[in-house]
User: What shape does this take?
Amino acid sequence: MIELEGHKIGGDAPCFIIGEAGINHDGDLEKAKEMVKVAKDAGCDAVKFQLITAERLYIKDAGSFTTDFGEDFNIFDVWKNVELTKEWLPQLKQACEENNIIFMSSVFDEVGADVIEEFIGIYKIASYELTHLPLLKHVASKGKPIIMSIGGSTGLKQIREAIETVKSAGNNQIIIMQCVAQYPAKLENTNVNVLDTLRKEFPEVIIGFSDHSMDPEKVPGAAVAKGAKLVEKHFTISRESQGIDHKMSIEPEELKRMVTTIKETEARMKRGEAIEIDPILLGTGEIALADDQKDLMKFTRRRVFVKTNIITGEEITADKLTILRPGNRHVETGLPAKDIDTVIGKKAVKDLAEGHMIGIMDFE
Assistant: This one.
């Protein structure tokens, strides 16, 4: 069990509910504060944002992305426009304290993890960063609980590697969230049976569910019935707003319905009542990458890039490298984030310009 600002997560404690504000503040601090109130009014235990700095997330020429709703976005510009700045943090923390709701944020790089440390009691690692093992190790070393979403995972091996990375830093306060990395997630991909798989394979960690579907009741209720001790879901003040996440988020009244459903499901379970789950949500329980997620994973899984020019024969040092999402420049030969140590200390066999994606033929 994990204790967080007077709340208990796991064990026999009630399901911990997070309203995921994410980037739906659209770069507007007052809107972000309004979202804090919306989450509180809905009955959420916490409201979560995303501490993003575009330059430390994607390469600048990541290209464009078309959503399932047919909207086209320049990826780098999207994130640049919704950066949650360092100056916002004390104000959002204060807004949460005034509304008696826990302030949370996902972190995407080591600098962000350091900046936000004094404002949070728990870290959240997004699905796409599950293979960013240097980030996991850095965050784990801070000794605070860690939530890791597993959307896009290719199997148990990948999840186990992430858990072991956190534990190797002396941190055993871990929550794993089943998640479908699809926006919005299709009901037939929900696969709540994965919760059984995770509990069996990792009995030492707390299991939760990060829901990207548009359903405010059926999916969260099924997750709780399957034993999720924590549920989070994206919300927006209005789906009519312009932005990459608004149309795949639920609105305030739906967020309230979600919280009500979760609490009613728990009450029914305590009374020993059977909870019926729509078969379409069950899935196989197998952790695998769905075909319609594969391209997105290539787009978002971190790779190693050159940060400052490296000349032929020069030793490759950590300060000359960076770990970023490749966007449309993804190539299968690019060095994954988790393998960055294999290149450090090696010699460059050719000139490597800033922004170059490191491959195995670039060093010896």
User: Anything to note?
Assistant: The mean pLDDT is 94. Residues 113 and 328 are 26 Å apart (CA to CA). The domain at 302-364 is CATH 3.90.1210.10 (Type Iii Antifreeze Protein Isoform Hplc 12). The longest strand covers residues 16-22.
